[in-house]
Amino acid sequence: MKYLTEFRDNDLVQKLLYEIHQITTRPWAMMEVCGGQTHSIIRNGIDQLLPPEIELIHGPGCPVCVTPLETIDKALAIAAQPNVIFCSFGDMLRVPGSDHDLFAVKSQGGDIRIVYSPLDALKVARDNPDKQVVFFGIGFETTAPANAQALVVAKKQGLKNFSMLVSHVLVPPAIEALMQSPTCRVQAFLAAGHVCSVMGYWQYEPLAEKYHVPIVVTGFEPLDVLNGVYHAVLQLEASRHEVENAYSRAVQREGNLPAQKVMQDVFEVCDRTWRGIGMIPQSGWQLNAAYRDMDAAIRFQVGDIHTQESAICRSGEVLQGLIKPHLCPAFGKECTPSKPLGATMVSSEGACAAYYNYGRFIEHEQVAP
Asked: Cα(132)–Cα(138) distance, rounded to whole angstroms?
């Protein structure tokens, strides 16, 4: 397939759906890890086209959604300080902290700027030598190489006024944590293709073997997702548990070695708290000793900020695949995109936002117990 339209071709979709219906003989529950895949599934109605025996469970694969509340509050505290220019991707500005968001800080006079690359933030630092410039570095393995490279460049250029608030998380430890949960119903995973394009998929092989769970590396277009489902069902029906690459046009087993090298030069693995989920051991990256002086949390002394999650927001259960978004009592009522309680409603990859924006279950009678 050479062109984007081919990945949405209706005839090909129907053929693949027919094959999936033909091979499915019993109920199966599989989780798409990535929030981008969740939006593709809901936007295109893929879950409604699959056999009723197949349940797609939405996973914790939205980097904005899993950024812990205390990190958002640290960002707010830094951004509100005088002499600071706080740079972030646009999707973080409306993520609620304990009391407000970055837009509120901006409305109160904070110098907050939307950038499209961490290198944009470096330019802001070069252009404003009398200001402290902070970049909000979040995300999975996909965004980590660019953030790491920005820190390398900043150090080489001697930019003493540049730092980064880091909240990077890793996918394999999250899969392991989900599989260890007594409430886990996941029987197969659709792994995120863009993460695997960086890291490869060799890290998933021990997980597939340990937990006897198929893991299929999958893309984001309708045919990509359906192809991933097809290969997962084939494995499940045959009682196999392997890692398969259904996204070979972008992913190789070993991944992007130069990108991995720059991450290893800048980051070290650490325990990381995931919003709504809690601490997952060895599931994040922090700056290593060579770059610790560029850690904004240390530079601005906000490391002691601790927070409590919303009592009525059930985004943590959504992120773990325990409930669908519309089963949260606050969905579409106290929690909407214009007034979100949690990041899953405001993020462009959040499951709650997908359900709301594409008209899924806005009117509902049943709520989760």
From this structure: 19
Q: What is the pLDDT of residues 216-270, one digit of tens each?
A: 999 999 999 999 999 999 999 999 999 999 999 999 999 999 999 999 999 999 9
Boundaries of every domain in the chain: 1-325
Q: Are 24 and 233 in contact (CB under 8 A)?
A: yes
Length of the chain: 369
- In CATH, 1-325 is 3.40.50.11740: yes
User: Using an 8 Å Cβ cutoff, are 195 and 36 in contact?
Assistant: no
Rounded-to-integer distance, Cα 37 and Cα 48, Å:
15
Helix (H, G, I), strand (E, B) or coil at 216: strand
**d(C-alpha 104, C-alpha 286), whole Å:** 28
**In this structure, what token pair is assigned to residue 177?**
């944590």
Query: Which amino acid appears at position 49 of this protein?
Result: L
pTM score: 0.90
47 CB-near residues (< 8 Å, 6+ apart): 41, 56
CA distance 78 to 134: 8
